Amino acid sequence: MFNNSELILTPTPTRPTRPPRQRHIWINSDRVFYSGLIGQRTTRVMGSILMYVSLSEPIRISIDNGDWITTDFAVVQPYTPHRIECDNRLVAVMHIEPETVALEYLPAYLKSRSGKVADPELVQRIVDAYAKINRLGDIIDPKTEDFDMFFFGQLLVRPPPFESRIAMLVERIKENPCGQASAISCAADSGLSVSRFLHLFRATVGISFRSFRSWKRGRSLLYRLLDSNNLIYLALNTGYPDATHFSHSVRQVFGMTPTLLFKSSQSIRMYGQAIPPPHAL
């Protein structure tokens, strides 16, 4: 397990102190820490609980086409349309997959409405953690527990077990997010009618099967930022039928074109799990 005992939190200044600019992504199926460019100010929709933290200049965020708000820290709840911008476009973005946490036990700032959060101590902790990652050079086999302790100083409480059939399918999709699982095939595997399966999935996971599967596929692109700049290859390797669908998904999730996404990731350092190529579940 990663030892965070060396992370020393400095007293909170008027403005958090900022480390040198480096780009990283720490990723597994439950969490993401990304430090890098945020792309264009287009609307994006992601299935994670999102934390945006300024690493340089303040960020500006608009929730669901609302007014722009300036802040060092913002939280966006899953599937909430939003736009974000920063003058130098370098921010930290943290993803928490909602099916991996007991929502009622989350820290108050993660349960807040989407938008600005005033918590300078947490901002400084994230900035300090980012600076430490800059110094580390590598993180071997990062675990969810390591992530939580490193960034939050506590383990986020996991939810009660899902209904067994739904739990099995959720794990299969997370392990192979590029697969071609359909509601029909998953219902058959579960011994349920399609309508009953879709109802049970939404009631258990809190989101529709289609939205869950689409988000996990879009999220899987984060594992492949260093793979290739051949869009057709990337589209097929992430389970999209063609480059057009792939490009639309990238724009919706990441707020930038595939070309800009992969160009901006050329100097990124990646820590985390690999995922398999797509195959039918």
Describe the fold and architecture.
With 281 residues, this protein is α+β, with helices and mostly antiparallel strands. It folds into two domains: 24-152, Jelly Rolls (Sandwich); 164-255, Arc Repressor Mutant, subunit A. 35% of the residues lie in helices and 17% in strands. The strands form two sheets. The protein has a seven-stranded mixed β-sheet, with helices on one face. Helix 5 crosses helix 6 and helix 8 (231-237) crosses helix 9 (243-254). Residues 1-15 and 275-281 have low confidence and may be disordered.
Helices and strands in order:
Blueprint: E1 24-27, E2 31-37, E3 49-54, E4 59-63, E5 69-71, E6 73-76, E7 82-86, E8 90-96, H1 108-111, E9 115-116, H2 120-136, H3 144-152, H4 164-175, H5 183-190, H6 194-205, H7 209-219, H8 231-237, H9 243-254, H10 258-264, E10 269-272
Parallel strand pairs: 1-10
Antiparallel strand pairs: 1-2, 2-8, 3-6, 3-8, 4-5, 4-7, 6-9
Helix pairs in contact: 5-6, 8-9
